[in-house]
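Ticket #4471: structure export looks truncated?
Reporter: QA, pipeline team
Priority: medium

Steps to reproduce: submit the single chain below to the structure queue and open the exported record.
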Amino acid sequence: MTATLAELLTTIERLWPLAGAESWDASGLVTGDPDAEVRRVLFTVDAVGDTIDEAIAERFDLVIAHHPLLLHGVTSVAEDRYKGALLARLIRAGCALVTAHTNADVVADGTSAVLADRLGLVETRPVQPSFDPSIGLGRVGRLPEPTTVGRLARALAELLPPTATGVRVAGGFDDPVETVALCGGAGDSMLGDPEVRGADVYITADLRHHPASEAREQAKLAGGPALIDVSHWASEWLWLDVAAAQLRAAHPGLVVAVSELRTDPWDFQIVQ
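Actual output as written to the record:
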């Protein structure tokens, strides 16, 4: 059984409405003929050389990537530049590319919601609500049983796929934790959010030196969360299985797969 790309785009819009995307985002159809037939769909976090190789070798008709290939403006898609080379290969192979980025972050089953669910958080609510106050980029909730920062970090390390950078923590190993705020992907923009400031710990990715340092210094003065920093790729990879299941339910005749390739950019780390 097949569906047209246009039919799949309708489903994608229903699951991850573009109205939920941030103004700076570049989600949606990147390349592909809306009238083309689709039989096989591959989900991945990143549209990079390895995942495009996988899609073409396994004869997928559509790649749905979380991160936009063309997020930042380009003035050329010449094939001596990697974005142009990837687009050319996709076009020659008849493989379409669609991205679902911040519009897939904010929905009820988005990246942060999936991470919160896998951690077992209860009584969850959005952080930084979007166009709909019931959804948002982050989540905050309560653990069913209190734990410590160190034990929570270890649980994350077991839950997430392994990466070179692992799990980094700013806070005491035995500090108590009951309320958890989190944001899949880069979330240091939320460090000042009242929901984050009121949590015992904040889990996100790509925490930079200055925002993290300032947040910890402010916490010493007026209270605030411990910080747990994980791989950007790993924090969002868990969402792929949920997204794939949603697409399978809408189009049961299609083959829908999730890439197992690690596209985290770091290969190894030397611990001093």
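Status: closed, not a bug. The export was complete when the record was re-opened. Leaving a note from the reviewer for reference: The mean pLDDT is 96.
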